[in-house]
Fold this protein.
Amino acid sequence: MNKTILIILIVFASNLCFGQQWYGVINDPDRYTNVRKGPGTNFEIVAKIQDNEIFYIEDSDNDWFFIYLIENNYLEGYIHSSRVRRISELQPIGEREYKSGLLTIKDKKYEFTIGRSDFKKSDHEYELQDDKWIIKIDGTSPYGVDGNYPSTQISTFIFKIDGTTTNIPKSAYSDLYENNLGATSIFKNIDETIYITMAENSDGAGGYDAVWIFKDGQYLKRVIIIP
């Protein structure tokens, strides 16, 4: 195999794995799990993680994971490993196809299509700091850039379940720029919850990962992670 192609494949594979291995959801029939101050049941409970909350896995201490609660101001604590399921360990969904600038991931039940286009400055309104740095685009803080104009934006975002298009608000993706379609994947939990992940999005600064969650055939929420 050509050495250059091999390097590209290795980078592509590492992109697919990046992010998901560090993010987790709970594995608990009670639909919530206690977060403790230390690695043991004798430590104080500092928070509870609910079903479908995403947390960042920092490290492990024997049977306990040290985690950050992304959706709770990055509050930190410990969860027993038996109550953790990494997103990367969930069932991967679909075959990938690139065609006409679109990435489609699909199987017999699910079909996700995402595409990006060049960012057109004239199509948007801006809020500037010091008459120079962009802090808002169309009234919202942008992800993927750090004060500069984006170069790319999401132009297509469609998720179908059994052929029916899911209703997804434009706000679920319209503020996400410099998108890394090559690091987009779909995972399914045992309760049929779907996680669409897109990792390492950035213009070199302002990096972020994005996760979209679908539950019971409906769009549930989006989670943005700032590594």
